Write a sequence for this structure.
């Protein structure tokens, strides 16, 4: 059985599509893994890239990709909404099948070792690869961002795990690590009032008393003309999608607001959808078949959870 | 202005009403505080007593009450659904008005000192009165219950705060403390399947990924023939009643189970009811009046939250 990981490098360029294409091209049409998507965001000035497959086969193309990011991105001129500290800002390896998180940590270290040695890029290992509890959370490492890193990296507490305690003048620094899968999930509301999305986000997120494994906030989609509750579901087994969706619907009621749709950003494990389909079918008294086809999973997800812009290739297992 | 506390001793007897009456009688018709209620539960074999008023005036009657519990309850023969470790199992002092939590801690210590000295009952100080972080949570102290306490108390880690490291042969041990108000809230389900209540409790409680300020578990009310999700709401502002109730309803659906009623044990602050009434009235498009009469608060609570066995004297403010 092949080892399968999801690898999601983020680069600090979300506007110049030619540049982005040049940087990501070593990741395309490779043996052993699939290039799933590149999702550039103009406001963030950042692109999220998703790869799926054998991590062994990803390392050389990733080194190539780092080299091109180094060549094209000068962090001294970078501005964007999203916090960042390097041209390639972060690269997580996420175990999907036939691989442990510990093995993912080893691939993270291998990539870190190569790029620090070849290009003098300082690397922080983060999440499950972290060498110290203070380095588990990416925002802690990234605090100060590119501009503050010049000084921060000289503090012995922030000595990088690979490379010298000195930022790369144009690239900055990078974080490489391994983490368990999370689901990026957004719920569309029938209003453009961001305060409503904010109040509902507070009701469901861990940091203000809500569900333990939910990070959530409001987002105004100006072009589309409505707000979202945007979230990460860090543990979909403990905080399943249906429970969050139903709670958001319940909270929205008091504002005479409805949930119009929901949205999965990036990939989602099949099991997360099946768990929620099971809830709805049991509630409706419809027999649940855990071996339903991938097409039926998509159909049911759209019906029950109102997931928009969805197809089977958003499901991890359909890409394997 | 008078100092007002709520004091809620729990005794390990919920079946023999004559015994209960004898034990609680020193708490009735006293100057300076009101005897609000005694709520015996046959399945739990436990009675929750609620006092409200000046803590200074409660101490002597409470000592008397402990003495009578000691006289009438033999823990060696006690069985019930609720975890317990002593004849008087726990006595919290809760600040309501014109008093700080620190003053409540002093009253807890005063009571502890007296009853350990007079009746050789070992006392653990808990919650805000705890002398060690391991003793903040009552379930940690109570783990092992009456039967396990014989050995546990000999462990230097579990040396009682007052009295010898030896259980009272018939009384067991007791916990006395001070804590902020919480709401003891139970939700009745239309089933006698305890597994369903247990699964739902896990979905909502903090310890398994649910809402941050909820402690919950299942309870089978054998006499009544149904199960409850029984809970403490530790912060009703962050985890309001309606949100928990609606989430339990939603989770129950998958088992074709409904919420038949809910129940407040002891007292509840007016604000906690108003917050939830507001949710339902806003959702229904009914104008909400935060100055509604106490009678209307009761009526709305029964209508919207299906609270059974409820009247205005369950509301703290109606007793002041």
């Amino acid at each position: 059985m092949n080892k399968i990981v999801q690898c999601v490098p983020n680069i600090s360029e979300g506007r110049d599509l030619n540049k982005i294409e040049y940087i990501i091209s070593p990741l395309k049409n490779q043996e052993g893994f699939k290039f799933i998507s590149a999702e550039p965001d103009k406001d963030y000035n950042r692109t999220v890239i998703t790869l799926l497959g054998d991590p062994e086969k990803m390392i050389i193309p990733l080194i190539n990709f780092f080299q091109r990011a180094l060549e094209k991105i000068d962090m001294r001129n970078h501005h964007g909404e999203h916090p960042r500290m390097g041209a390639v800002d972060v690269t997580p390896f996420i175990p999907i099948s036939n691989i442990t998180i510990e093995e993912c940590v080893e691939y993270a270290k291998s990539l870190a070792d190569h790029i620090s040695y070849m290009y003098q890029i300082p690397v922080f290992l983060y999440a499950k690869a972290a060498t110290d509890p203070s380095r588990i959370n990416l925002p802690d490492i990234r605090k100060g961002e590119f501009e503050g890193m010049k000084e921060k990296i000289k503090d012995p507490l922030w000595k990088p795990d690979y490379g010298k305690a000195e930022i790369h003048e144009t690239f900055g620094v990078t974080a490489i690590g391994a983490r368990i899968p999370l689901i990026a999930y957004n719920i569309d509301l029938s209003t453009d009032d961001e305060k409503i999305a904010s109040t509902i986000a507070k009701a469901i997120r861990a940091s203000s008393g809500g569900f333990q494994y939910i990070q959530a906030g409001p987002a105004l989609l100006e072009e589309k003309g409505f707000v979202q509750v945007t979230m990460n579901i860090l543990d979909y087994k403990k905080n399943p999608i249906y429970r969050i969706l139903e709670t958001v619907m319940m909270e929205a009621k008091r504002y005479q607001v409805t949930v119009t749709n929901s949205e999965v950003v990036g990939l989602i494990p099949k099991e997360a959808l099946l768990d929620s389909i099971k809830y709805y079918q049991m509630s409706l008294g419809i027999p649940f078949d855990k071996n339903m086809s991938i097409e039926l999973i998509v159909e049911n997800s759209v019906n029950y959870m109102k997931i928009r812009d969805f197809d089977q290739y958003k499901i991890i297992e359909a890409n394997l």
